[in-house]
Amino acid sequence: MAYIDNSSDVPALAGGARVEDYLALLKPRVMSLVVFTALVGMLVAPGGINPFVGLVAIVCIAIGAGASGALNMWYDADIDAVMSRTQNRPIPAGRMTAGEALAFGLILSVFSVTLLGLATNWVAGGFLAFTIFFYAVVYTMWLKRSTPQNIVIGGAAGAFPPMVGWAAVTGTLSWESFALFLIIFLWTPPHFWALALYKQGDYGAAGIPMMPNVAGEKSTKWQIFGYSIVLAASSVLPNLLGFSGWIYGTVAVLTGLSFIWLSLRLLRAPDSISMRRTARTLFTFSLSYLFVLFLALLTDNIALRLGVI
Predict the structure, then answer these.
(1) 145-189 tens-digit pLDDT
(2) Per residue in 222-255, pLDDT tens?
(3) What is the DSSP string of the chain?
(4) Phi, psi (5° rounding) for residue 12?
(5) Over the stretch 248-278, which tens digit does the pLDDT of each residue have?
(6) What pLDDT does 16 receive?
(7) Residue 110's Cα: distance from chain center in Å?
């Protein structure tokens, strides 16, 4: 998130950090997708939830996602300082101490988990706690710097929110909620590996073993293509499991084929310049892919409940 110096307009908090620095720790862009997928999981779950309780649950999931981001930035401050896209984050830029970020992340974690458990049920609260732990400890502290499979395994953390939303309504987990998890889980590797293909220098300088830096560009492109095919196939699971209709099915097929086509273009890129340009195009498309897919699922579900289709 780009930093604009508005020091005269934004009040400083304890320790010298400003409000916008604490907001940056929450990774608002990432949080927005997390919140949306969790909301869809909640709204398509069978049964219903009191609107106020549902709002509290979504706020808790958002705060939990922000807590994960803060803990991630606390631990990764050293490598953020050497990567061009992260150098201006609050800690490496010197606007906040690591201790402030750690305290902020821990407080938000405890608050979000406790409130979600009390407001809905402890299945949802416990699963949110596990999600924060998985992202902050399993992914950030262990996988990210130790294996090129960091994104593959660590991607589970970003795929849990719709299951948390589902559990907030039903108090259980199910195959339907797992299908939503699987779609996000399989989307994560091609999404981040496309970014890594045109940001290899950054990851190499930071010593992060992303797939292009370890296995090479050719292997990464083949893996992106393979994951795209499996992702497209998994996107029709809501139809196969019976909790979506033709609106979602049509969007899932069209967006899935588009993902495969772009990954095929990337695979066939004739040179490095073309490869980087196509990788950026695929990454940009993948940013909207999940939003479009989950929006279609929500639209389809509302239409089915209203008897429109």
Answers:
(1) 888 778 788 788 889 999 999 999 999 999 999 999 999 999 999
(2) 999 999 999 999 999 999 999 999 999 999 999 9
(3) ------TTTS-B-GGG-BHHHHHHHT-HHHHHHHHHHHHHHHHHSSS---HHHHHHHHHHHHHHHHHHHHHHHHHTHHHHTTSTTTTTSTTTTTSS-HHHHHHHHHHHHHHHHHHHHHHT-HHHHHHHHHHHHIIIIIIIIIITTT-TTHHHHHTHHHHSHHHHHHHHHHSS--HHHHHHHHHHHHHHHHHHHHHHHH-HHHHHHHT---HHHHH-HHHHHHHHHHHHHHHHHHTTHHHHTTS--HHHHHHHHHHHHHHHHHHHHHHT--SHHHHHHHHHHHHHHHHHHHHHHHHHHHHHHHHHHHT--
(4) -90, 145
(5) 999 999 999 999 999 999 999 988 888 889 9
(6) 63
(7) 21
